[in-house]
Design a protein that fits this description.
By secondary structure, the chain is mainly beta. It has 2 domains: 615 residues, TonB-dependent receptor, beta-barrel domain (Maltoporin, Chain A, Beta Barrel); 136 residues, no CATH class. The protein is built from 12 helices and 42 strands. The protein has a 22-stranded antiparallel barrel, surrounded by 4 helices. Strands 1-3-4-2 form a 4-stranded mixed sheet. A 4-stranded mixed sheet has the order 27-28-32-31. Strand 5 and strand 6 form a beta hairpin. The longest helix is centred in the first third of the chain and has 11 residues. 51% of the residues are buried.
Length: 913
């Protein structure tokens, strides 16, 4: 038997199915949402949501729950579900096309990050079950989504590991009828960011209505935004020292020691660059502050403002009703890919050039010889020949079978089994092979007067490397194809992830008590996860520097769980008070770390039918994933704040405490144990009987995670080093001359504490206009969501930082104190229009930068408009996002919260048969 328990998997699944063949909680009911009338009907009905295994209406949940329905999905015409959720104030848009520009793991992915506590702490479900592409919502077709149910508090007792911040349950449509075809296209007001997509679906009943079959597919191609300079405040911003003890964030901060054509930084030729013909001219570099310069460049001059991606999704479902049960089988296929110029290879930018290099003109070689110089230092960014191309393809295949049914007096059961596989082929093409580059850059003249690699110029011996072709680094576009092909190769990582998942549950009323029935839900679940990761031959040989894919991976684990939940009515005084108590518990046994409990206690009190008071206390868990356990090596490059400035700032020439590009490596730890979180929520909902259609909820939350698994950031390591941690200092590499932070080595550990506190507010009002006048049609719909974050603490055990109110660079974990949306829409059977305001509160760029004079960022409000017109079988629609082209704040890489695209137009059409 393998170490993952695979040999016993089939037997375990069969035993689980036999033991619990009649167990379930029914899937959440489908909510019609094609028209405002349907939305109004849904608003007044009992929507079963994900906050509990026991069916409850949304505003009756003890755990706060938000439903993102058809209106929210339609607003903004977003490219995937991740971007839909990122518009909601409870989510931190940690990974988006605009924030994954320096991340080889984030480009092309579409995860969600509830509360900003990390993507792995948000459990994402599809129709109430886990899926192998978990938390990459590029695999889910938007057009087949009925709604998204967001539990904004801990829910591990109900749903298992990973639900520390909450749960996103994606509910797909399951009763499609007829054929629907659609197409859409989008473009920014600057003519870039083109996007186009197509979708189609088909559904039909058969066997007298007992059977149903449906299938849907989507394709989307988002071209991204290549030119950062096309947007205000994205022209290579950086922090400079304007006088001792005073810094400022300004645009066009550039390298002083390298450029696209190159700059000589030592000796008699210092301060000169090469023309394409190899002649010299004075280099027009930045000023004393490092700003400007006609020849000067920055890392961010060469990277996308928003990365491109493509996705294709197919989903099919077959169901058949027999007796009191529904048998079903479904399958899905998803493919998400990205391919774009990443940025120039970082490995060979500061070169030592021999004074006898034959690609130098005779006059330059003579000048060097007369000065007695054997070499010079040459800084060049080889954008023309050695720009990395990131090519990533993720492919997801999954199938599931299950049964939902009823028996007896209202008992409901559910059982399912699914198998999924996710394959990723990630490549960094056009990477420099270090050894070959060293040979090719060292050119010499052979006995025949030809310029060759020096290893091949010795007349006494045979050619040491016949394939070597010399590099001419002097002037852009002068490197031959033979030299380019010899020097470059592809860094590659191949990853396969497998998930087998089985579950069964049973829900019903045990017996009646003095205040109503005691309702219980019980069940068992099991899953087996595996991951293998291998590298290309050149990556295994360590041929590249930096070697991005530096380790292989082969690991897995299994977990078996049992859970129970009970809703106990304590008081039912009609029209006066109704009090319920809710409790849930789950025991999980992990093959890697043993057993652990999660639990939840909660209660609700409905007063006079209009007010609901609710409170919960829960113990939630998150187990380490395979990547954290089994040492996958990763690299991330971006700006950091160096907090260990003692004896450096203002003392060492060239030192900066805000380096623009720090390389951070991270890896796994097989000894990790599950994180433990305690969550407290308390709030109230108000649904006045005298004001039909209006709902208001206000909820306080406090989430604290102990033993959190974290990879320490470079900034936290520098602070820990300053405070005397030898282990932190050992993980930092500094420039030997300037002492500027260059590299940080980190690994996953159970040492962190995260805590966040805040308040969520939701208000909605749905008004069928026929209630105002019988001559009026359609429905008016208003909704407001707001989140106030009082505290957002990250304590790594080495450093403690509260970043609530930091709204600057995407590389930090800042969150605004206030964020909210307000939408207003009108819809009838033929026409609809809606407007939405997205608000991001102001705050500090980074409150740790006490010397920064422009450390405040003002609040931003974005206005979006949408319209839909239905003519017979056709529906035409259009959207405008960021109507007033609100510019992003001055930031270095990209903002997690602020719109960098600007005004964006989308139009499309759909036909239904």
């Amino acid at each position: 038997m393998s170490k993952f328990g695979n040999a016993s998997r089939s037997g375990s699944i069969i035993a689980l199915a036999i033991a619990l063949a009649h167990a379930s909680t029914a899937l959440a009911q489908t909510v019609p949402a094609d028209t405002a009338e349907a939305e109004a009907e849904a608003a007044s009905s009992d929507i079963v949501v994900t906050g509990s295994r026991i069916e409850r209406a949304g505003f009756d949940q003890p755990t706060p729950t938000t439903v993102v329905g058809a209106a929210e999905i339609r607003q903004g015409a977003r490219a995937n579900l991740s971007q839909v959720l990122n518009d909601q104030p409870q989510f931190r848009p940690t990974t988006t096309p605009a924030t994954s520009i320096g991340n080889t793991t984030g480009s092309g992915a579409a995860p969600v990050d509830l509360r900003g506590l990390g993507q792995a702490r948000t459990l994402t479900l599809l129709n109430g079950r886990r899926f192998v592409g978990e938390n990459n919502l590029n695999f889910v077709p938007i057009g087949l989504v009925e709604r998204l149910e967001v539990v904004t508090g801990g829910a591990s007792a109900a749903w298992g590991s990973g639900a520390v911040a909450g749960v996103v349950n994606i509910i797909l449509k399951d009763k499609l009828e007829g054929i629907t075809l659609g197409a859409q296209s989008g473009v920014s007001s600057r003519g870039d960011g083109q996007r186009y997509g197509f979708d189609g679906s088909f559904g039909t009943h058969f066997a007298g209505g007992n059977g149903h079959f449906m299938i849907g597919a989507e394709y989307l191609d988002d071209k991204g935004i290549p030119d950062r300079h096309s947007r205000q405040n994205l022209n290579s911003p950086g922090i400079v020292t304007i006088r001792p003890g005073v810094t400022q964030l300004v645009e066009d901060v550039n390298y002083t020691d390298r450029s696209h054509a190159g700059v000589i930084t030592t000796g008699v030729l210092r301060g000169q660059t090469f023309n394409q013909d190899g002649s010299l001219r004075a280099w027009s570099g930045p000023n004393a502050l490092g700003v400007g310069g006609a020849d000067a460049v920055n890392l961010y001059d060469d990277i996308y403002a928003a990365t491109p991606f493509k996705r294709v999704n197919v989903y099919g479902r077959l169901s058949y009703d027999v007796g009191g049960a529904t048998l079903w089988v479904d399958g899905s296929y998803g493919r998400a890919s990205t391919n774009y110029p990443f940025f120039p290879d970082l490995g060979q930018q500061i070169l030592t050039i021999s004074a006898t290099n034959p690609f130098l003109s005779q006059s330059i070689r003579t000048r060097l010889a007369n000065a007695g110089e054997n070499s010079f230092t040459f800084g060049r960014i080889f954008k023309d020949s050695f720009t990395w191309v990131f090519d990533s393809m993720r492919e997801n295949k999954e199938g599931a079978i299950g049964i939902d049914g009823k028996f007896g007096n209202g008992w409901k059961y559910h059982a399912h089994f699914s198998h999924g596989e996710l394959f990723q082929n990630a490549q960094l093409k056009n990477s420099i092979i270090t050894a070959n580059f060293a040979k090719a850059i060292n050119a010499a003249t052979n006995t025949s007067g030809q310029i060759v690699c020096a290893v091949n110029a010795d007349a006494i011996s045979t050619n040491d490397d016949p394939a070597c072709a010399p590099i001419n680094p002097f002037g852009e576009n002068n490197i031959s194809k033979a030299a380019h092909d010899y020097v470059t190769g592809t860094q590659q990582s191949l990853t396969t992830t497998k998930l087998d998942s089985a579950g069964a549950s049973l829900q019903g009323d045990l017996f009646n008590l003095w205040a109503g029935p005691l309702t219980v839900a019980v069940g068992a679940e099991a899953r087996w996860e595996e991951q293998t990761q291998s590298r290309g031959a050149l990556s295994r040989a360590g041929a590249f520097a930096p070697n991005v894919y530096s380790s292989d991976l082969n690991g897995g684990f299994n977990v078996k769980e049992g859970f129970a939940e009970a809703a106990l009515p304590l008081l039912d005084a009609k029209d006066v008070a109704k009090v319920d108590f809710n409790a849930a518990a789950r025991y999980s046994h992990y093959s890697t770390s043993g057993g652990i409990w999660a639990w939840k206690l909660g209660g609700t009190a409905r007063l006079f039918n209009d007010v609901l008071l609710r409170v919960t206390r829960s113990r939630d868990i998150r187990s380490a994933n395979i990547t954290e356990l089994f040492a996958t090596q990763r690299i991330n490059i971006g700006p950091q704040v160096d907090l260990d400035t003692a004896g450096r700032l203002g003392v060492i020439p060239g030192y900066t405490n805000t380096p623009a590009e720090v390389t951070t490596f991270s890896g796994g730890n097989p000894n990790l144990v599950p994180e433990i979180s305690t969550t407290f929520t308390a709030g109230a909902t108000f649904s006045p009987s005298f004001f039909k259609g209006f709902n208001l909820s206000v909820d306080y939350y406090d989430i604290k995670i102990e033993g959190a698994i974290t990879t320490l950031t470079a900034s936290n390591l520098t602070l820990a080093c300053k405070n005397g941690s030898a282990s932190a200092c050992a993980r930092l590499v500094r420039d030997p001359v300037t002492q500027t932070l260059k590299t940080a080595f980190a690994n996953a550990q159970n040492i962190a504490t995260f805590q966040t506190r805040g308040v969520d507010v939701e208000a909605s009002y749905t008004l069928p206009l026929a209630n105002v006048s019988s001559t009026m049609g359609g429905t008016l719909r208003m909704r407001a969501l707001a989140t106030y974050i009082d505290t957002f603490i990250q304590d790594t055990g080495l450093a403690r930082v509260d970043t609530a109110g930091d709204v600057g660079d995407s590389a930090s974990l800042g969150v605004p104190h206030w964020r909210g949306t307000f939408s207003l829409g009108y819809q009838d059977r033929t026409f609809g229009v809606d407007a939405r305001a997205r608000y991001v509160g102001g705050g500090s760029y980074n409150h740790l930068l006490t010397t920064l004079v422009n450390n405040h960022i003002g609040a931003k409000t974005y206005i979006d408009l949408g319209m839909q017109v239905k003519v017979d079988k056709f529906t035409l629609f259009g959207n405008v996002n960021n109507l007033f082209d609100v510019k992003p704040p001055l930031i270095t890489t990209g903002s997690a919260y602020h719109d960098i695209v600007g005004t964006y137009f989308t139009a499309g059409a759909r036909i239904a048969f």
